[in-house]
Design goal:
By secondary structure, the protein is an alpha/beta fold. It is built from 13 helices and 11 strands. The protein has a single domain, classed as Alpha-Beta Barrel (TIM Barrel). Bound molecules: iron/sulfur cluster (SF4).
Length: about 325
């Protein structure tokens, strides 16, 4: 769930802050895939692409980082051009910018934009053997995306993996793929069922099973290259004891491999803005059917920081 909200940007947010640090923004409502775990199913009456005035509004604020999360930012040429212009505007205003993409249309992003990005997260969800089983097409499409981003001067390339019942057994294979493609960082996050428009066909795995999925792997030697996300809400959902599981995984926690994200990441300075100008707390943003009820309209008469302060209260 934390990976879907913000990708690896969650790792750069402070443990606790009352100041806006990171905005995650859905620039569009289109995707060229239909992943079984996708929570970003949403119908809106307004634009299918973020209003350029909202880009200007965000660029005028002083927060540190903006994560462009799609739906799929490179879904088509128009969206990719919009992303390039927004990245240019955000970096000119002194922000670091990251992008989450499935990589299928990586070629639509030119070198100037790729070099402006602090990092690119690619949602992978499978390994060398299993990639094709997860509706992502042939592995060659991912290899092409990685080659393209590297050739264009990408600073850091990260692999994002949502773990459900369908791919829990593929964790060693996912790590082999990360070695094969030399990702700078591989992130695992558990799939969490949310309230979305289209049914999600993926099945959640219990926290103990999720953690067992890593048990046979020597992860310590991968310190700095692998992060496993977990949080108390996940244990609560399955009525499992957090302390028993965490005790067994303490060495991984001390090595910085297992990371707990508790509560709503709004307390880590994170806020979501949608392509149709809604502002949401990160946990609210996971439940797209509730967007119209829980989202507040962007008010450009306030700064993004003021909007964030109101959202927290
Ligand atoms: S690539 Fe992302 S936005 Fe597209 S269907 Fe998959 S999870 Fe959803």
């Amino acid at each position: 769930m934390w990976g879907s909200m913000s990708g690896s940007a969650i790792l750069t947010t402070p443990e606790e802050t009352s100041v806006l640090h990171t905005v995650t923004v859905t620039v569009n409502n289109a995707c060229n895939l239909r992943c079984t775990h996708c929570y970003l199913q949403y119908q809106s009456d307004t634009n299918e692409l973020l209003d350029p005035k909202t880009v200007t509004w965000l660029a005028a604020s002083e927060f540190a980082h903006i994560a462009i999360v799609g739906k799929e930012p490179l879904a088509n040429r128009r969206s990719a051009e919009f992303v390039s212009q927004a990245v240019e505007q955000f970096t000119r205003s002194g922000k670091s910018v990251s992008l989450i993409t499935n990589g299928l249309n990586a070629r639509l992003l030119g070198s100037e934009t790729v070099q402006q990005l602090a990092w690119i997260d690619i949602s992978v969800d499978g390994g060398i053997e299993s990639f094709g089983r997860h509706g992502r097409g042939p592995l060659a499409s991912l290899e092409r995306a990685v080659d393209h981003f590297r050739e264009k001067g990408c600073k850091k390339l990260r692999s994002l993996n949502t773990i459900s019942a369908a791919n829990i057994k593929d964790i060693p294979d996912i790590l082999s793929l990360s070695d094969h493609l030399d990702f700078d960082l591989t992130i695992f996050a558990p799939y969490f069922r949310t309230a979305s428009l289209r049914p999600q066909y993926a099945e959640m795995v219990a926290p103990s099973s999720y953690l067992k999925g890593f048990a046979s792997i020597n992860l310590e030697k991968r310190a700095g290259k692998v992060v496993i996300l977990i949080g108390s809400k996940y244990f609560d959902a399955f009525n499992e004891s957090r302390s028993d599981s965490i005790k067994a995984m303490l060495p991984l926690m001390q090595a910085g491999i297992l990371k707990e994200i508790d509560g709503d990441p709004i307390d880590r300075g994170l806020m979501r803005v949608t392509f149709d100008d809604l502002v949401l707390k990160p946990l609210e943003s996971l439940h797209t059917v509730g967007y119209q009820g829980s989202g507040r309209r962007v008010n450009r008469l306030q700064t993004a920081e003021e909007t964030f302060a109101r959202l927290r209260n």
